[in-house]
Amino acid sequence: MASSKRELFLKRRMRVRNKLRAVNAGRLRLSVHRSSKNISVQLIDDVAGVTVAAASTLEKELGYVGKNNIEAASKIGATIAERAKAAGVSEAYFDRGGFVYHGKIKALADAAREAGLKI
Question: Which spans of this chain does the record mark as coiled coil (predicted)?
Answer without folding.
Answer: none
